[in-house]
Amino acid sequence: MAGLELLSDQGYRVDGRKPSELRKVQARMGVFAQADGSAYIEQGNTKALAVVYGPHEVRGSRSRTLHDRAVINCQYSMATFSTAERKRRPHGDRKSSEMSLHLKQTFEAAVLTQLYPRSQIDIYVKILQSDGGNYSACVNAATLAVIDAGIPMRDYVCACSAGFVEDTPLADLCHAEESGGGTSLALALLPRGGQIALLQMDARLHQDHLDTLIEAAMTACKGLSDVLDSVVRQHLQEVSVLTRDLGVCFSASPCISVRKPPALYLL
Amino acid sequence: MATVQVSEAEKVYIMHGVRDDLRVDGRGCEDYRHMEIETDVVSNTDGSAKVTLGHTAILVGIKAEIGKPRPMVADEGFLEFFVDCSANATPEFEGRGGDELGTELSNTLYKVFNNRNSIDLRTLCISPGEHCWVLYIDVLLLQCDGNLFDAISVAVKAALFNTRIPKVHISEDEEGGKEIELSDDPYDCMRLNVENVPCIVTLCKVGHRHVVDATLLEKACSEGGRGSLDPESIFEMTETGKRVGKALHAPLMEVLQKEESLGKKRQKVGFLG
């Protein structure tokens, strides 16, 4: 790793952040009307779009049906223009299949699948612009989309990456830091109980450092969960204002179905 | 493309509405739905645009790469189209499900741009026979609610308008070897003339009349692309198409230029708005 200094002598990173600082997070729920749930998130320059369909009847082969819980079906794909070098295929390569599997495992740990036996929940995520931390952006976007779809979860799932440079743990890596060598770890957390839904590390790290690195990632995840929570509450407020107006206009017709506020499940 | 099912009564209602030039959402037969266009939404592309037309949402990203010109046309660059029907739009597109529609859409785009008038490909030439710019135009379907062709063509046009290709300088050394230098200044770039880039206008015959920008519901009321047409209505439909296309083109260019003139003052909305 020549030339690029990931952590300056003054303790700042390449993009000017402090080691434990997250990138700016902006998110919106309910981006699309046709899907059951959708959300968009920006974490720095990484942009992800998640869409949820279901729970619905199992599509395709019946053999996939589970009699005691819902099947979670995930597909991860990247827009062909999302990376600096143009990608030839949006999905279907080894890396995206692996990512789809990780997402599936993460959400099987969080969604209360036993409430929907013999059904299927589709979670589709698309990276529109990639600048490191694709997995975490996908998980965070998908969490918001699942909440938007009104599917009950144990807790928010928040994901964040962390790296280890010069004995210092760095939270929320950008592309330059991810590709600059060194260890990086992706962690998905259920923040309330402090349970880890997924932990993945590819490179080598001394065992003594593992605790500090996980600790840094968990702190970052908790920070993210506050942001996601405020996004959900903001969205609920907007929706409830709208539906209240509707309630006045259509007070005569009792059959208007208002999507159940997800906060009911969370609190 | 959420699957729609229309009942017989609904079908009659829609068809009678079309007959009286009043459609279900209040439009006339030659009106488009509300269209939103935003350019420069993906910062790591050379040009990008997001278009929503009713519930149909399209994102186009253009990347310019240096390649070798085609042997038959040594002094021209070329365009490559790819349409990604992502599962985001509908679960049916999961896996390879969207490939067929994607190929159909990209083939249409190839046909539309396969003439000298659409875009001047000679501006994409760097050194004849050796180097040229290849524009990879990638279309992403995010949500489908009918009229994909028109929405995609508008989005491609907007993205081409937004495309900025860095200027290159060719220097020759003593042995005659050529070296390409890219300009360091991000503002030193080339723009494309999109004045003649076509907009596709799709017409849909519902009952005895034809409509522009049909929603999925209206498309389900017509033969849904499977039926046949008599020569007379084909002529009428081309005439309408021409008229509507001209009416669409002028305000589109105006909007694009207006957005451009705002410069840095423009607030980027993207998907957050």
UniProtKB/TrEMBL annotation, chain A:
Keywords attached to this entry: Acetylation, Cytoplasm, Exosome, Nucleus, RNA-binding, rRNA processing
Annotated localization: Cytoplasm; Nucleus, Nucleolus; Nucleus, Nucleoplasm
Residue stretches making up the Exoribonuclease phosphorolytic domain: 21-152, 155-219
GO cellular component: cytoplasmic exosome (RNase complex); nuclear exosome (RNase complex); nucleolus; nucleoplasm
Stored InterPro entries: ExoRNase_PH_dom1, ExoRNase_PH_dom2, ExoRNase_PH_dom2_sf, PNPase/RNase_PH_dom_sf, Ribosomal_Su5_D2-typ_SF, RNase_PH
GO biological process entries: nuclear mRNA surveillance; poly(A)-dependent snoRNA 3'-end processing; rRNA catabolic process; rRNA processing; U4 snRNA 3'-end processing
MF annotations from Gene Ontology: RNA binding
Transmembrane segments: none
Subunit (UniProt): Component of the RNA exosome core complex (Exo-9), composed of EXOSC1, EXOSC2, EXOSC3, EXOSC4, EXOSC5, EXOSC6, EXOSC7, EXOSC8 and EXOSC9; within the complex interacts with EXOSC2, EXOSC7 and EXOSC9. The catalytically inactive RNA exosome core complex (Exo-9) associates with the catalytic subunit EXOSC10/RRP6. Exo-9 may associate with DIS3 to form the nucleolar exosome complex, or DIS3L to form the cytoplasmic exosome complex.
Assigned protein family: Belongs to the RNase PH family.
UniProt-recorded name of the protein: Exosome complex component RRP41
UniProtKB/TrEMBL annotation, chain B:
InterPro entries: ExoRNase_PH_dom1, ExoRNase_PH_dom2_sf, Exosome_comp_Rrp42_subfam, PNPase/RNase_PH_dom_sf, Ribosomal_Su5_D2-typ_SF
Molecular function GO terms recorded: mRNA 3'-UTR AU-rich region binding
Domain of life of the organism encoding this protein: Eukaryota
Stored SUPFAM superfamilies: Ribonuclease PH domain 2-like, Ribosomal protein S5 domain 2-like
Cellular component, GO annotation: cytoplasmic exosome (RNase complex); nuclear exosome (RNase complex); nucleolus
Subcellular location: Cytoplasm; Nucleus, Nucleolus
Ranges for domain Exoribonuclease phosphorolytic: 32-166
Main location: cytoplasm
Residue ranges of the TM segments: none
UniProt keywords, alphabetically: Cytoplasm, Exosome, rRNA processing
Any one GO biological process: U5 snRNA 3'-end processing
Protein family: Belongs to the RNase PH family.
PANTHER family the UniProt entry points to: EXOSOME COMPLEX COMPONENT RRP42, EXOSOME COMPLEX EXONUCLEASE RIBOSOMAL RNA PROCESSING PROTEIN
Protein name: Ribosomal RNA-processing protein 42
Organism, scientific name: Aldrovandia affinis
